[in-house]
Amino acid sequence: MYVKPWYHGDSFGNRYAMVIDYKYAKKILNRCKNPIIIAGELLSRDKEAIDIISKARYDIVSTTPKTYIAFKDRDRETYYESLNTLINLLKSDDWKGFNGKEYDLAVFIGIFHQLLIQMISTLRNFSNVITMNASRFYVSIADYSFPNLDRDTWLEYLRKTFL
Question: From the CA atom positions of the chain, what is the Rg in Å?
């Protein structure tokens, strides 16, 4: 299925992200040995989305202080690391993750689009980590991505994927 990228400059080569729904996203998460959720500032602006993601059973890394505080307010243990440093750690062969195991899937949510495509591009070219975009807008450079969604549909996707 072809989805028009939300950002018109978001076309890199001839390989596009597989468009997935919540059923397939849940299957991917269940098949991976050690996924990580990377949460950005845009997520901290949506209280319902934070509530949903805070109940996920995977490691969560907040990339901004606002997101870190939002998870702490919900009594959710989360790690804090800048996005650039985290991407460098994920592409490093020596780093074993926050929990002592290598991450095989990075799920991005709530990161500014222009920054996100650069970070996913780095992982795509310099690591073996699979990338999934769980934000509201399609990101063609990821391995997997939700399509362009309105807010209510996106929240439903999050509920059915992470809960």
Answer: 14
The reported pTM is: 0.92
Q: 92-135, pLDDT tens digit by residue?
A: 989 999 999 999 999 999 999 889 999 999 999 999 999 999 99
Structure tokens at 125: 């070219």
Cα separation, 143 vs 59, in Å, equals: 20
Tokens of 90: 């994920």
Structure tokens at 88: 């460098």
Residue 19: φ, ψ to 5°:
-80, 125
Q: Which domains does the chain have, with CATH numbers?
A: 30-162 (3.40.50.1220)
